[in-house]
Amino acid sequence: MTIEERQREIISEFNMFTDWMEKYEYIIELGKELPLIDEMHKTDDNLIRGCQSRVWLHAELQDGKITFTADSDAIITKGLVALVIRALNNQTPHDIAEADLYFVKEIGLNEHLSPTRSNGLASMIKQMKMYAFAYANR
Amino acid sequence: MMIKETLDIERIRKEFPILHQQVNGKPLVYFDNAASSQKPYQVIDALSHYYNHYNANIHRGAHHLANIATEAFENTRTKVQTFINAKHRHEIIFTGGTTDAVNLVVQTWGRKNLGAGDEILLSMMEHHSNIVPWQLIAEEKGAIIKVLPITQAGEWDTSQIDSLLSERTKLVAVNHVSNSLGTINPIKMLIDKAHAIGSKVLIDGAQAVPHMQVDVQQLDCDFYCFSAHKMYGPTGTGILYGKEDILNEMPPWRGGGEMIKTVSFSKTTYNELPYKFEAGTPNIADVIAFGAAIDFMNELGWSTLHEQEMTLLKYATEQLQQLDNITIYGTAAQKTGVISFGIKNIHPYDLGTLLDKQGVAVRTGHHCTQPLWEFYEVVGSVRASFAVYNTTAEVDQFMAALRKSIELLG
């Protein structure tokens, strides 16, 4: 699936929710269920400090595609991280670098991307793109 | 009691237009007052009245509008003087806020008086604004920062004070009330001890002045700093109080208009207090509206302000204590209307996010006091902080929202 197709899929899933509670229940579930990162990669080097919640991000290039793993100390942030990874994982550096993650706004979670939320999510996406640029220019 | 609260507080709430709105489909519950309080019509109207009727630069103009603006601006100085019982009105310096006031003292008094090996005593519960400016000057001058530890209850470990004060102590800089915990610190005792060994004392009063009567002469502190926006006033203005003789000996900090007497390329002479420290066009509109905020507080009176906050603190603390797995940080005997807490295995950010979805505004995180949370060994807390316009019914809405959030996250 392309990044575009994955974003469409996420949007249609979120369209089924009728209120904020269902939406957040789902995000919390995503946060709880996904074992996102190998403990050995949960290092200070991989830490993205938000003012409020912390995010760890690890990237690996395999067969021309990037695999991301990540974690956060806040469960909602972790759920949001899981969604972003779902959209971008196992894609080429070029596609990741070019991706416009419009799904976040479409599913009504844009507030979490605002730099003022300081949850580390916006910084994480920026970091993912930087990995993609770095791998693309290798 | 409840009837009285309903009548009085409903009348007070009518004065705050911002409170009457829905957030995410729920009535707004604003419990982030320690970060910034809301503003009554009196304050908002003073701002628009100034811009609509008498906006002009102050002190210099020889025209009608400039005269009215100058008088209104200087009136606030007198109101502040009375409000904190300063001896002289020229001991009241307008700054951009508490942070700006601390930095002014650091860059003038600190730069002049601190040297290698001199000691500055701070406490474990200081706001970053009362840590970092001192670190900057300490690093430059080779001065040493000492830290007064706290107890689990969130009070100073007063048994350590005597051993931390020494003949090298030049300054003690501590808050009157902790922004993260609400602890009211016994500053008078520390001021007296510091003075006995010849140290000066700066008090960060940002969290105290909105909640209790402060008398700088009775306290005998050398500096006292606070912000207007936490006491129903506008953002962008605050106060440095300093004792006259100390302020007079301090060199100016920012240069510019207003702070000079005469300027020539061979010799510039500086203006007198308070203008020596007020370079450039000041924040005229906000200072004038700050005066209206002081009027508002005076009209309400300390008994109303204090009683309502204590009612809310007591009620909310009792309600929160009924929750499983809760830790309340800061259980000092003397507190303002601030409750900091955490729920076991739940990140404060998650709670804050879900409370917001239910119309409740609280602060989550480290509240700019990272050393404090290191002491408690947690990343931070959820902080609910009250103002006079909050009600016990809002505490109920907050508690229902909190229970719902815990259920979702559990």
Secondary structure layout:
The complex is a heterodimer of chains A (138) and B (410).
Chain A: H1 3-14, H2 20-33, E1 47-49, E2 54-62, E3 65-72, H3 75-88, H4 93-98, H5 103-106, H6 121-136
Antiparallel strand pairs in A: 1-2, 2-3
Chain B: H1 2-14, E1 22-23, E2 26-27, E3 29-30, H2 41-54, H3 64-84, E4 92-95, H4 98-113, E5 119-123, H5 132-141, E6 144-148, H6 161-164, E7 169-175, H7 187-196, E8 200-204, H8 216-219, E9 223-227, E10 238-242, H9 244-249, E11 260-262, E12 269-270, H10 284-300, H11 302-321, E13 326-329, E14 338-343, H12 348-357, E15 360-361, E16 363-365, H13 370-376, E17 381-385, H14 392-409
Parallel strand pairs in B: 3-15, 5-6, 5-7, 7-8, 8-9
Antiparallel strand pairs in B: 1-2, 4-10, 9-10, 11-12, 13-14, 14-17, 16-17
Helix pairs in contact in B: 2-10, 3-10, 4-5, 11-14, 12-14
Describe the structure.
The complex is a heterodimer of chains A (138) and B (410). In chain A, 48% of the residues lie in helices and 14% in strands. By secondary structure, chain A is α+β, with helices and mostly antiparallel strands. In chain A, helix 1 crosses helix 3 (75-88) and helix 2 crosses helix 3 (75-88). Chain A is globular and about 45 Å long. The model of chain B has no long low-confidence stretch (mean pLDDT 96). Chain B starts with a helix and ends with a helix. Chain B is built from 14 helices and 17 strands. The radius of gyration of chain B is 22 Å and the shape is globular. In chain B, strands 4-10-9-8-7-5-6 form a 7-stranded mixed β-sheet, with helices on both faces. Chain A binds chain B through residues 20-21, 24-25, 28, 51-54, 73-77, 118-119, and chain B through 24, 346-350, 352-354, 357, 364-366, 379-380, 408-409.
